């Protein structure tokens, strides 16, 4: 467990928390706490002063700061704890040979790249299981999310980017940017374990040849590139390359989890939170309803599922303080359902509104034969093409890996575009499900912006797009999925300026649903920093005796 991080980086509380996670995993508990024996009792905690729904970035920050304030906190997470090796000795399966651990209750993987040379060689049949990556399908948009203790941190590319200050201020006009950039962004980066690649190693290693080729083409176009920090331990990565540490980023691992090197939340915020002794995490428990008791406390209904997905228990929980960290989809769904079914009828009309994809579009370019990108590619992106300052066509394009283990001459990108389109969720009373109003027309602007930038790059380098990566229809721009769902309970609209849900005291949102659809860079540092800001304010003002 600790091989992923150097010992000096671990605090005593993190070591205690990791021990709790390890004990729970070894004994097969779905309830995790420092006192595992107590946490393992069936009904050890059904009321708690504070409950946190979800264990991604927003949930993890809430849990840690509540626990450090001495408030006993229960975290309810619908995914499983990813800490037990499978029959192959690994916790996570690889992207090249996915098995049941890869995806959330699917019989076939649904990777972002559907095809290669138009061939259906990427996706594979798997067994149904609470795997780590989910792709949630709406009518005209699908959303990738992480499932498990650590949420999106388990499956993401680790890019830890602080947004340009001017754009942050544009998106959050009521938030004090001095305070964010002086206090909360640095606090978030430190707790997340953000680090940067050694530039000398980057320039010399075969593992980032694909990035250097894309940089060369961007520079030839007159575009600026920038190094991007990451939470993957670059010291570990250098040892992987040297053959002295087990390979993870250099073994194609990322969207189905990293077995080594990644400082996911279970190794940072959540480990420290568990180490306080004030936090218990229940896994495989999905909250489906929120209501309010006559005394103003909150009542939650949660279904516990087994590894086949069967509901084995339905539980009620009570709490005084309720923190929603289910992510943009999870939190918005819970609040929308509560408003529309009348269990929290006074929620603002703006709950469900202001949702966007962070302008995500994925695309590939075909390089000349002499511009080899290398069979060996690290899965952790470290550079972006930064044309955000171009006010007419804002794009920040992450230079993404395509680690097939073979030379393929593809330059792949995840473009974050300044698409101002927003959509709303609605609640279908018949099915009890939420619908998303995002359409292909909303995505069209993202595609136009990405096309404008990459047409320039292709023109300057005499290259063309790849037509074979996103299905048999020769689609060039993958505009029908997002990695960055944002909004639905936007800060200052559905909540006050600190994430307090309007109309309901002691109910808070701490996750990506607060961000109004776009933040211009990869979002988890912003989500973490905003959650830090909310928790500082709430603990100072709302929880005093
Ligand atoms: P999130 O991390 O999604 O956590 C929500 C948690 O709540 C999950 O564990 C859910 O299982 C759980 N949950 C939801 N509903 C319920 C319920 N009803 N009951 C119990 N539990 C529930 O939310 N961002 C970056 O900044 N850099 C990257 O490099 C990057 N790469 C990405 C790559 C991929 C493949 C994906 C999918 C995402 C990537 N992201 C990246 C996005 C990032 O992971 C995402 O913005 C954050 O994880 C969102 O954090 P939240 O706290 O909002």
UniProtKB/TrEMBL annotation:
Keywords: Cholesterol metabolism, FAD, Flavoprotein, Isomerase, Lipid metabolism, Oxidoreductase, Steroid metabolism, Sterol metabolism. Residues 146-169 form the Glucose-methanol-choline oxidoreductase N-terminal domain. Its EC number is 1.1.3.6, 5.3.3.1. Belongs to the GMC oxidoreductase family. Its cofactor is FAD. InterPro entries: Cholesterol_Oxidase, FAD/NAD-bd_sf, GMC_OxRdtase_N, GMC_OxRtase_C, TAT_signal. This is Cholesterol oxidase. Pathway: Steroid metabolism; cholesterol degradation. One of its GO terms (molecular function) is cholesterol oxidase activity. Pfam families: GMC_oxred_C, GMC_oxred_C_1st, GMC_oxred_N. Gene3D superfamilies: Cholesterol Oxidase, domain 2, FAD/NAD(P)-binding domain.
């Amino acid at each position: 467990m600790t091989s992923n991080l150097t010992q000096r980086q671990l605090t005593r509380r993190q070591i205690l928390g990791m021990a709790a996670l390890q004990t729970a995993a070894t004994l097969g508990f779905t309830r995790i706490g420092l006192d595992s024996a107590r946490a393992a009792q069936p009904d050890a905690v059904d009321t708690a002063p504070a409950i946190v729904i979800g264990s991604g970035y927003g949930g993890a920050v809430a849990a840690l700061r509540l626990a450090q304030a001495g408030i006993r906190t229960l975290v309810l997470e619908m995914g499983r704890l990813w800490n037990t090796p499978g029959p192959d000795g690994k916790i996570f399966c690889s992207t090249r040979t996915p098995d049941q651990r890869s995806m959330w209750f699917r019989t076939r993987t649904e990777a972002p790249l559907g095809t290669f040379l138009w061939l259906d060689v990427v996706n594979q049949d798997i067994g149904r299981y609470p795997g780590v990556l989910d792709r949630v399908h709406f009518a005209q948009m699908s959303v990738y999310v992480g499932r498990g203790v650590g949420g999106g941190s388990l499956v993401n590319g680790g890019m830890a980017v602080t947004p340009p200050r001017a754009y942050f201020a544009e998106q959050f006009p009521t938030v004090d940017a001095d305070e964010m950039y002086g206090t909360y962004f640095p606090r978030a980066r430190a707790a997340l374990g953000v680090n940067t690649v050694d530039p000398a190693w980057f320039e010399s290693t075969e593992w980032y040849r694909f990035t250097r080729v894309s940089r060369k083409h961007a520079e030839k176009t007159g575009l600026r590139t920038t190094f991007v920090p990451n939470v993957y331990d670059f010291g570990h990565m250098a040892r992987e390359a040297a053959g002295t540490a087990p390979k993870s980023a250099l073994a194609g691992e990322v969207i189905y989890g990293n077995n080594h090197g990644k400082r996911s939340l279970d190794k940072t915020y959540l480990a420290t939170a568990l180490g306080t002794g004030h936090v218990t995490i229940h896994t495989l428990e999905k909250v489906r309803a929120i209501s309010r008791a006559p005394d103003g406390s909150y009542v939650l209904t949660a279904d516990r599922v087994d590894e086949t997905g069967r509901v084995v228990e339905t539980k009620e929980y009570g709490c005084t303080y309720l923190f929603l960290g289910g992510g943009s989809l999870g939190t918005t769904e819970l609040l929308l359902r509560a408003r529309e079914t009348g269990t929290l009828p006074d929620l603002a009309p703006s709950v469900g509104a202001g949702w966007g994809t962070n302008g995500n579009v994925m695309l590939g370019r075909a390089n000349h034969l002499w511009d080899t990108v290398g069979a060996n590619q690290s899965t952790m992106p470290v550079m972006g093409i930064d044309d955000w300052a171009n006010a007419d066509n804002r794009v920040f394009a992450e230079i993404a890996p395509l680690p097939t283990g073979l030379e393929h001459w593809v330059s792949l990108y995840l473009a974050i575009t300044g698409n101002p389109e927003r959509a709303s969720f609605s609640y279908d009373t018949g099915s009890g499900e939420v619908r998303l109003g995002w359409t292909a027309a909303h995505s069209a602007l993202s595609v136009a912006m990405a096309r404008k930038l990459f047409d320039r790059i292709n023109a300057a380098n005499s290259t063309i797009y790849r037509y074979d990566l996103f299905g048999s229809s020769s689609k060039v721009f993958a505009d029908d999925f997002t990695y960055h769902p944002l909004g639905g309970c936007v800060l200052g609209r559905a909540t006050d300026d600190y994430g307090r849900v309007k109309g309901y005291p002691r109910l808070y949102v701490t996750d990506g649903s607060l961000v109004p659809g776009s933040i211009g860079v990869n979002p988890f540092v912003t989500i973490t920093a905003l959650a830090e800001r909310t928790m500082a304010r709430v603990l100072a003002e709302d929880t005093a005796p």
